[in-house]
Structure formats: C-alpha cells, structure tokens
Amino acid sequence: MTTSPTNALGTRIRALRQQAKLTLAELSKLSGVALATLSRIETGRMTGTLESHVAVAKALGVPLPDIYREVAAETPLVVVHRKAQGAGDRFAYGKGATFEMLTSKVLAKRMMPLVLILAPGRSTQSEESPPGVEKFLYVLEGMIEAHIGGELHRLGAGEGVYFAAALAHHWRNPGRTAARGLCVTSPPAL
Question: For the segment 28-38, what is each residue's pLDDT rounded down to a tens digit?
Fold first, then answer.
C-alpha cells in the first residue's frame, strides 16, 4: 500500500512532535498554528500551508526539509508533467500570493520549479534561504517587483532575475492584473 504525501507529512510531524515530547496543544501554542489545523495535518486530512509548515518546523527546532523527509522518496530520472494532469500542489503564501509546484517529491530533486501567482497589489512575505541556495524568477505575465537585499528590480513579461537567496527577498505585483512568474530554487529550500 502506498502512503499519500499528505499522510506521510502528517505522520512525520506527529513523530517529530512526540520526539520533542510536546502535546498538540503545546505545539499549537509554540507555533501559532491552530490546534484543529495541526490535528488535521497529523491525521492526513489536510496539508496546511507553507507558512504553517515553517512555523511548525521552527517550534520543533528542526530545519524545514526535515518535516518533508518521509514525503521525499526515490524518483525516476525523467518525470513529465502534462497539462491534462492539472495544477500541482498549491501553497498560499500570504493573502493573494500562491505558489504552484511544478514537480512532485521536490526534496528528492536538485531544483524546485514553481509558478508564482500574485493578485494585483499583493506581495509575498520577506524570506531568506540558507547560504548556498540560489533563485531565479522569470516573469511570464504582468509585472513583478523583486525586492532583493534592499534593492528594487521591476520586471515585466520576458524578464528575470537570478540571485543568492540568502539575501532577504520578496515579490510584489504593482499592477492591476494578476502576475505570474516561473520561480526556480536550487537546491530546494522550503
């Protein structure tokens, strides 16, 4: 029997919580993630958001990739994603900001391709990746402001930016229509 990624994630978080000798209520208080949400994640009824995963990892004192360890497994050398398969996993990243995964089992890979979707006037939260992580953003449609290391770079469709992701960075859509960009992180860092 194959375990779904949602169940594997929940099982892993439960194991890490128990290893830390924390109750669900204690983890909820430490992480700021609602008790009901944590319960649903642990029982495989939901995956949660990237923000909730970050908060749980911090509360447990583990690097974020550790909570995905059971989800990442050996993958074939070639994986084709067809349009007919529909969208990949989506993660809300703030109000009006969404990342769509373009591949599965991302932590078993050397890069993480995502589509960033920003509603008009919306932005992602500021983030910094560990040293050695690089990112590339290529704007597919609309306009995206790339705020990187205190500098602002305005990018239109067909333009991109490559940078060391250890610099504080976030994306913003200054336009009146949705903006989409291809974002690639290497190695994967969630």
Answer: 999 999 999 89
Domain borders along the chain are 5-67, 83-186
Please give the CATH number for the structural domain made up of 83-186.
Answer: 2.60.120.10
Phi-psi region of 122 (alpha: psi -120 to 50; beta: other; left: phi over 0): beta
Instruction: Please say if the pLDDT value at position 1 is more than 50.
Output: no
Q: What confidence score (pLDDT) does residue 115 get?
A: 94
**Architecture field, domain 5-67:** Orthogonal Bundle (1.10)
* Residue 2 reports pLDDT greater than 50: no
The sign of the dihedral angle between the CA atoms of 155, 148, 32, 28 is positive
Cβ neighbours, 10 Å, residue 63: 13
Residue 74, classed as helix, strand or coil, is: coil
CA distances from 160 to 20, 47, 139, 184, 188 (A): 42, 31, 6, 11, 19
